[in-house]
Hints:
The protein is α+β, with helices and mostly antiparallel strands. The chain contains 9 helices and 17 strands. The strands form 4 sheets. The chain has an 8-stranded mixed beta sheet with strand order 1-2-4-3-5-17-6-16, with helices on both faces. Strands 8, 10, 12, 13 and 14 form a 5-stranded antiparallel beta sheet that branches. The longest helix is centred in the last third of the chain and has 22 residues, at about 255-275. It is elongated, with a radius of gyration of 23 Å. It binds ligand L5K734KM. The ligand CC(=O)N[C@@H](CCC[C@H](N)C(=O)O)C(=O)O binds near residues 174 and 345. It comes from Planococcus faecalis.
Amino acid sequence: MELVRIRRALHQIPEIGFQEVKTQAYLMDIISQFPQERIELVKWRTGLAVKVRGDNPTKMIGWRTDMDALAIMEETELEFQSQHPGFMHACGHDIHMTIAIGLLHKLIDEPIQDDVVILFQPAEEGPGGALPFREWLKTDKPDFLPDCIYALHIAPELPVGTVGTRSGLLFANTSELFIDLHGKGGHAAFPHLTEDMAIAAASMLMQLQTVVSRNVNPMDSAVLTIGKLSAGTVQNIIAEHARLEGTIRTLTSESMSQVKQRIEAICRAVEQANNCQVHIDYGSSYLEVKNDETLAENFLRYASQVKGIQAIQSDAAMTGEDFGYFTEQIPGVMFWAGVSSAYGLHHSKLNPDEQVLELMPDFLHGFFLKS
Ligand SMILES: CC(=O)N[C@@H](CCC[C@H](N)C(=O)O)C(=O)O
C-alpha cells in the first residue's frame, strides 16, 4: 500500500465539515481498488461506513476516523501542500484517514476473527458529525453499529511509536461561543453621539477572562478561549458591530452550564453599560470523551508488549472530540499517537512524521486480532 501517496493526496484536498465531497470520492476510489468480497460500503452524507467480514465473528469492532480540515492557510511549504487556499489538514485528519485505509487493506489481506466496521466521519471540527452519524447507524444501519469502538488522534509533541491514553475522562466537554454586539456607530470625530462596539467588545473580552479565574472552582478546571475578535469597517468610523468567536472547555456538563450562566450575566452587563444589543450563539457542543476502563487497560497492556511501540499513561486534555458521542453509548477508547512535529495541532506549519502511516495499521491489526 502506498500510504504516503494516499496521505499526500488527501492533504492536498482539505475540506471543512460536511463539505468533504472530494475527500469522500477519493476514499471511495481507493477502496474500490481493493478486493470487494469481504467488504460492504455505505455512504452517509459526506462520510462512509465500511464493514469487513471476519472469519468467525463474535462481535463487530469499530474504528473511527474523522475526515474534515480547518480554515487555516497552510504555511508548511511542503511540495504536497494544500491545493485549497485557506484550508488545511492542520489537525491530522489526513493522517487519521490514511491509517484507516491502511487498516482496512490489512484486514482484507489478513482477515481476523471478528467483523470490523470502519467509520469515516465528517465534520469533527464542527459542526459535529459523530452524533448524527451514530443516530443514523442506529436507525438506518444497525448492522453497521459496532459493539466497541476505537479511534486515535495524532500527538505532535510525542515521538512516532508512542501511544498514550487513560481510563475514564480523556477529552473535555466543549461548546463553541459566538457573541455579536450591535449598537449605534458613527463618525470617528463624534464619539459622544455613538455607542462604540469595538470598546464594548474589548471590555467584554477582558471581563470574560474572569469567568475561569474567578467563577470556576480552582479544584475543577475550565478554559474559555476567544480565538477571533472583530469589529468595525474602516479606521475613521466608530464600529456599530463587533463579534467574538471562541470555545468553552469544561470537565463536566454541570460546569459547562455554570460557565454559560456567567457568560450570559457578563453579556447582559455589557449590554446595559454600552447601550447595545448582545446576541449569544453556542454553535455546536461536544460531550466529553470517556474511555471504557477495561478496554483502555487492555489497550495499554497490549501496546506495552508490542516491539517498537512505547505505551504511556496520558493526562486528560482540554481538547474536544465528538468521538464522545460514540463513547457515550458504545464502550470505546481514544488514544494519542505520536507524530513528532515541531508545530502543534491547529498550527499552519503542522508537519506530522509519515512513518506513523506504516506503523499504526500493523499495530491496530495486531490489537484487533487479540481483542
Ligand atoms: C482534537 C481537536 O483539536 N478538536 C477540536 C474540536 C473543536 C470543537 C469545536 N469546534 C469547538 O471549538 O468547541 C478542538 O478544538 O479541541
